[in-house]
């Protein structure tokens, strides 16, 4: 399977967690991406309960030059202590794959990924059986794992089984952890790596300043809660000075950083507009950053987990939200038990 170095991340256009996408604009962005040479689109059943998958079908029909990767959500979160069969019961995986194929209007998907992983599952016969059955059904050409946030090494034992074709992992200038073990392993064993969240959810585009606000309900209200915007802005300033680039060059620089590692098959920036597509595609033609610069960028590693928020931070986001959103949050919380 050959994919363009720049792929298209579709979480944002799915319209859960991210607020503000307009479907007609999203479809234009998808079509422009294809016209400019992007052939790889990453989606998930979770993104808008299939909404981003349906937008892909709307944009491309079932054109066979478009490579699509989707993901099966866990029935429950992939937390330590849960067995594979609790998180991904076979009937659940098969049912989700059928729904995804209906959404995409396809008979088969190019790459099907487990949306979350636990290190303990590598030798679990239920997982091996599930992979064999999914492959055997002819409904998925390749099988991948999208690892949990900030746990790149958790997938290594599973890779050693030889059952996995690709890994999706956070990889960006701030979070370079995948470089330590995962990327060298995948490079050596020819396992495709998809670099996700290349802009650290927008931080590495330079658009998150201390004054930035996000729409009500947007997950970035808590990802960048409290002092985090200030911290991000300070880090970005140091990066620009060290790399001797201007703010407007940062998005391309951030993508080139990802593509500079030989293990990376594709980087999948989240894009929602034609402009962002046009701005991001050229990164693929600029080649890798030079070795001395990459060495200096090691100093910009930043160990933290913004996907975690404390109770106080959650309360801070909740208390500043409008009433309608407060009600929705409470209903969702209790609706899910
Ligand atoms: N667990 C998982 O499997 C998992 C988790 C997270 C993400 N992913 C995948 O990885 C993809 C990428 O991650 P992400 O979308 O969360 O974050 P990301 O790619 O790090 O950042 C997306 C953000 O970058 C902005 N952006 C894109 N191009 C830009 C440009 N040229 N100039 C300025 N801003 C630009 C977007 O702006 P706007 O806000 O203006 O649109 C959006 O805010 C997702 O879409 C999804 O496919 C998978």
What do you see in this structure?
By secondary structure, this protein is α/β, with parallel strands linked by helices. It has a single domain (8-306), classed as Alpha-Beta Barrel (TIM Barrel), CATH 3.20.20. It is built from 15 helices and 8 strands. It has helices at 11-14, 23-35, 51-60, 84-87, 90-104, 125-136, 156-159, 182-189, 220-223, 228-243, 250-259, 274-280, 291-297, 311-320, 323-335; strands spanning 8-9, 40-42, 67-73, 109-115, 140-146, 166-170, 192-196, 264-267. It has an 8-stranded parallel sheet, with helices on one face. Strand 6 (166-170), helix 8 (182-189) and strand 7 form a beta-alpha-beta unit. The radius of gyration is 19 Å and the shape is globular. The mean pLDDT is 95. Bound molecules: NADP nicotinamide-adenine-dinucleotide phosphate. NADP nicotinamide-adenine-dinucleotide phosphate is lined by residues 9-12, 42, 71, 115, 146, 168, 196-202, 205, 207, 251, 268-272, 276, 279-280.
Descriptive tags:
337 residues, alpha/beta, TIM Barrel, 8-stranded parallel beta sheet, 15 helices, 12% strand, binds NADP nicotinamide-adenine-dinucleotide phosphate
**Second-tier CATH architecture:** Alpha-Beta Barrel
The secondary structure category is alpha/beta
CATH topology: TIM Barrel
Could you tell me the mean pLDDT?
Answer: 95
The domain tally reads 1
Span of the ends, CA to CA: 42 Å
CATH superfamily: NADP-dependent oxidoreductase domain
Write down how many β-strands occur, each being a DSSP E stretch of 2 or more residues: 8
Helix % is 40-55%
Heterogens: NADP nicotinamide-adenine-dinucleotide phosphate
């Amino acid at each position: 399977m050959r994919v363009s170095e720049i792929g298209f991340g579709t979480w944002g256009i799915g319209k859960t967690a991210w607020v503000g996408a307009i479907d007609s604009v999203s479809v234009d962005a998808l079509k422009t991406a294809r016209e400019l040479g992007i052939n790889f689109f990453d989606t998930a059943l979770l993104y808008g309960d299939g909404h981003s998958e349906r937008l892909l079908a709307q944009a491309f029909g079932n054109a066979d030059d478009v490579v699509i990767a989707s993901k099966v959500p866990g029935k429950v979160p992939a937390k330590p202590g849960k067995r594979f069969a609790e998180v991904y019961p076979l009937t659940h995986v098969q049912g989700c794959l059928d729904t995804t194929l209906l959404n995409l209007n396809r008979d088969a998907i190019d790459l099907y990924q487990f949306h979350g992983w636990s290190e303990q599952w590598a030798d679990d016969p239920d997982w091996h059986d599930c992979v064999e059955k999914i492959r055997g059904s002819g409904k998925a050409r390749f099988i991948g794992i999208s690892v949990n946030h900030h746990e790149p090494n958790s997938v290594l034992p599973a890779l050693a089984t030889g059952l996995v074709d690709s890994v999706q992992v956070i990889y960006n200038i701030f979070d370079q952890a995948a470089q330590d073990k995962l990327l060298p392993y995948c490079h050596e064993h020819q396992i495709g790596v998809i670099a996700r969240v290349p802009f650290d959810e927008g931080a590495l585009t330079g658009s998150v300043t201390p004054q930035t606000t996000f729409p009500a309900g947007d997950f970035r209200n808590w990802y960048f809660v409290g002092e985090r915007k200030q911290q991000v802005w300070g880090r970005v300033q140091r990066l620009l000075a060290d790399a001797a680039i201007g703010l407007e060059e940062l998005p391309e620089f951030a993508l080139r950083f990802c593509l500079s590692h030989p293990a990376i098959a594709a980087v999948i920036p989240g894009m929602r507009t034609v402009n962002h597509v046009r701005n991001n595609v050229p990164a693929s033609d600029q080649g890798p950053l030079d070795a001395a610069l990459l060495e200096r960028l090691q100093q910009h590693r930043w160990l933290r987990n913004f996907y975690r928020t404390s109770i106080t931070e959650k309360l801070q986001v909740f208390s500043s939200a409008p009433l309608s959103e407060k009600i929705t949050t409470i209903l969702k919380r209790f609706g899910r038990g």
